[in-house]
Design brief:
There is one protein chain. By secondary structure, the protein is of the alpha+beta class. It contains eight helices and 18 strands. The strands form two sheets. The protein has a ten-stranded antiparallel β-barrel with strand order 9-10-11-12-13-14-15-16-17-18. An eight-stranded mixed β-sheet has the order 7-1-4-3-2-6-5-8, with no helix packed on it. The longest helix is centred in the middle third of the chain and has 28 residues, at 222-249. 10% of the residues are buried.
């Protein structure tokens, strides 16, 4: 007998084929991703797992993505193990929501996968973000709490508005205070009824006076004055409109100034010139110098006061007055001594102080300065050279060219305008004023003078 043609063999083949088809269809329609071990696992903890059933569906956006594998107790809380489809990827920010289907429906788990920018959540890891959308029990609990609060509020309101009142609650104190205030107002109005009536009469008189003023139809009344004022205002507005029209058309001085670019440019140039002049005046530096030194030959002190005006760093003007002990010769005493055949003649000149003036212009060239003008009532020139980082100044002056007087001087600055000075006067002896000298001086700038004036005031 041929086995392949036997009826029992054909029936067995049919049964196996149908069984395989049923198994395949079951795999396709099953919501359990753990079927045949194909799954992605995760778990979370919640205080109460009531309403959740092992094997119930897990959804995302309403689409089943797995089932609850197990629910068990862990550390006093309910641990829920999830079995998810292998293509569901969770991230560190993944969260779980406990939802219900309808008001009285069963609970199910809704999983939110999290932000794709976060690190992936490993298989079998814990989901930490748990959200409970609220069940019917939670709603009932909240309603119960609200009812209790309403009951307490009603009790407090009843105590506050009772006939005898209550100061136990804020509302009761407010009601009692309002009652007391209204009673005080009633007593005050009763006691001062006549005054209140007077106030009402005064208000009535004021309103009546305002009504008469506003409704006065005479030529000197409010209405006539108001109409006249409005007419003047209208004329003023017309004049303003005409003026602005002329300005817009470029008529008149203001119109040219606004519309003519050349006029505006000339005005800007003039303003800039004034600003430059004021800026130059603001930058003007002024100083006062006091100087006195002792002349050994004259046995007297020479004192001078000079004003230095410096409009710029490269130039300055010097104006001053000098009290010179080598001034005017009042007389000459002649002494003749005869000693045998030798005769000696000595002369002694008597001098008195003379005031002399300085008026010079100086030009700076880095550390070198050239001066020229009037030096002690005579024409002359001077040269200055700064040394040791401007702490010392070497000067040479030549003046009174008929009897050439050459003066050499060294000045050393000690501290903030205080300096020592020394040198030789009339070094060639042409003017009969040769003498060495030594002294000191003080130089004050305009900033120093402002500070000094402020301290004095």
């Amino acid at each position: 007998m041929n086995l392949l043609r036997a009826g029992e063999f054909k029936v067995g083949i049919l049964v196996l084929g149908v069984s395989a088809l049923i198994a395949y269809m079951s795999m396709q329609v099953s919501e359990d991703p753990t079927f045949f071990g194909r799954n992605n696992e995760a778990w979370f903890l919640i205080p109460d797992a009531g309403g959740l059933v092992k094997g119930s569906a897990i959804k995302t956006a309403g689409i089943p993505i797995g089932t609850i594998k197990d629910i068990r107790l862990q550390d006093g809380m309910a641990r829920v193990d999830l079995g998810l489809k292998p293509d569901v990827q969770l991230y560190q920010s993944a969260s779980v929501e406990i939802r219900t289907q309808g008001i009285l429906g069963d609970k199910y788990i809704n999983v939110l996968s999290g932000s794709p920018t976060d690190p992936p959540l490993p298989k079998g890891a814990q989901i930490l973000n748990i959200k409970d959308r609220g069940s019917l029990e939670g709603v009932v609990t909240q309603i119960t709490d609200i009812g209790a609060s309403l009951k307490d509020t009603a009790r407090i309101l009843q105590e506050s508005i009772a006939a005898d009142g209550s100061r136990q609650h804020v509302l009761g104190r407010i009601v009692l205070n309002i009652e007391k205030l209204t009673a005080d107002v009633a007593d005050m109005t009763t006691a001062n009824r006549e005054k209140v009536n007077d106030i009402v009469d005064n208000v009535r008189n004021v309103t009546q006076t305002l009504d008469e003023l506003l409704n006065d139809e005479s030529a000197e009344g409010f209405k006539a004055k108001f109409k006249d004022s409005m007419a003047r205002l209208d004329n003023s507005l017309k004049n303003i409109d005409e003026i602005t029209g002329k300005i817009n058309r470029g008529e008149g001085t203001i119109g040219k100034l606004v519309n003519d670019d050349e006029t505006a440019e000339e005005l800007n140039t003039a303003i800039q010139g004034v600003n430059n002049m004021l800026d130059t005046a603001g930058k003007l530096q002024t100083g006062i110098e006091f100087q006195s030194y002792y002349l050994g030959e004259a046995a007297a002190a020479r004192t001078s006061v000079n004003v230095k005006v410096q409009p710029g760093l490269d130039r300055y003007y010097l104006i001053g007055v000098v009290d010179d002990p080598f001034g005017v010769v009042e007389g000459i005493d002649t002494t003749t001594t005869t000693n045998g055949t030798t005769t000696e003649v000595s002369e002694r000149k008597t001098r008195r102080n003379e005031f002399k003036f300085n008026a010079q212009f100086a030009k700076n060239f880095y550390n070198f300065t050239v001066r020229g003008g009037i030096i002690e009532n005579a024409g002359g020139v001077g040269f200055d050279y700064m040394l040791f980082r401007n702490r010392a100044k070497l000067s040479l002056e030549a003046f009174q060219f008929s009897q050439l007087n050459i003066r050499a001087q060294l000045q050393y600055n000690l501290y903030k305008g205080i300096y020592l000075v020394g040198g030789g006067n009339d070094m060639l002896g042409n003017a009969g004023k040769r003498s060495g000298y030594l002294g000191a001086g003080l130089f004050l700038t305009n900033d120093d003078l402002k500070l000094l004036a402020g301290s004095l005031l």
